Amino acid sequence: MEGGLQRDIYNHKLTTPEAWPLAPGGRNDPPSPPPASVIIEPDTSCQDDSVWHPSLVQNNTCDNTHEYPTEWNTPTGNETYLFESAYDCCQYTFPNGTCLTVDICPTLAPTPNPTPAPTPPPTPLPTQPETASYDPQCTSGRITNGCTPVAVVSAEKLRDFTDGPAETTRIANVLMKDTRISQYMISKEAWGCIWTELIQNGKGIRSVTSREGWVESDYNFSGPMLQKMIEELDRLITKYSSPSWNTQANANRLVELLVEHRGLIQIEYNDVTSGLRRLEERDFLGPDERSRMYNMEGRRLDEGNQATDLEYFMALEQKMADMKRSEWQALYSAKGGSE
Question: Is the pTM of this model over 0.85?
C-alpha cells in the first residue's frame, strides 16, 4: 500500500537500505559483489565496547566477537542484531531453541586497589530514520508505475460461492486496462464460466478447501492467538481509515475487507473464550493455552508431549534464522573470511 516504503516487519518503524543489504538485488538480477563494509579481518580482541550478536560461524550461537557486518551498527541493525548481554541476544534471536554463547572476554581477577572507571554515558536508543527509503525495485522503473497497488482483491471472496463471480470480475477489469494483457483476454461472457469451473467445480489447482474431510472451521486457534490477530487488525484498520488514507479507493477497499475479517475473528474469539467452541489437542493452541489445558487434565507438559503446531512454528522460526545467518556467512566468506 505504501509503494515499497521500507519498514521493519516486527515494529513497523521506518528502516533503511543499509539495514537490508541483500534486499536490492532481486532474484533475476546478476549477482553483485558483497558490500565493502563487511568486516573480513578476524578481531578477537576484548574491548570495553564489545556487544553480543548472532554468530556468523556457528549455528544457534551468540558471541561478542567483532566479526559482524557494519550494517548491523545502523539504527535498525543495532536494534535487531546487537545486544548488551548474551542473555538478551539468545532471548531475542533464538527464543524457542537452544542457544550457545561464546565469550571472548576473559574473566580477570580484580587488582588490589582497582581504580574506579568513569561512568560511561548511557547508550542512546536507536532512532527512527528521518527520511523514508523505498525498495529499489519500486523506484528504479523496473516495476511499471512503482509498487502502488492497482487494486485490492480478496482470496476469501474469490472462493466464496456468492461473492466469487464479482471478485473474478474485479480482477479481470484490472487486467483489461493493461494493453499487454487485454489482447489475450477471453470475452467477458466467459469470465463467470471460468470461475465456476475452477472454484465451484474444483478443476483448478489444489487450495485450502481441497483437503477431504476438513473445512476451514475445523482449524481452531487459542484465545491469546486470536487476541493478537484482533490487535493487528485494529492497527491496520486505524491506519488505513485515517484522513491520510481514507480518500483512496484501494485503502477503503482494504479497510472494508479488514473490518469484515475482524468481525469473523471476534466471533471466533468469543466462541473460544466462552467455551462454545471447544479446543482440542490438534488445534493451534500456543504454549500458554496448551500448558493450561495439560494442567487441567493433570498431565505434565514436557518434551515428550509438546504441541505439534508449536514445534512447527519453532522449526519455521529457526529455519528463517538459519537462512539469514547463511546469507551473512556467504558474504563473509566471499570477502576472504574463514569459518
Answer: no
- φ, ψ (nearest 5 deg) of residue 182: -60, -30
CB 300 within 8 A of CB 5: no
The set of residues, in sequence order, having a beta carbon less than 8 Å from that of 265 and lying 6+ positions away, is 226, 229, 230, 233
Per-residue pLDDT of the chain (339 residues; tens, 9 = 90+): 888 888 887 778 888 776 654 444 333 333 333 333 333 333 445 555 678 888 877 777 888 888 788 778 776 667 778 888 888 888 778 766 678 888 887 554 444 455 555 555 554 444 555 578 888 888 887 787 778 898 999 999 998 999 999 999 999 999 999 888 999 999 999 999 999 998 888 887 777 777 777 777 777 888 888 999 999 999 999 999 999 999 999 999 999 999 999 999 999 999 988 888 887 777 777 766 777 766 765 555 444 444 455 566 666 677 777 777 777 777 666 656 544
Which among 22, 97, 106, 14 is positioned nearest to 54, based on CA atoms? 97
Distance CA 71, CA 85 (A): 20
**One-letter amino acid of 91:** Q
User: Cell digits for 204?
Assistant: 483448478
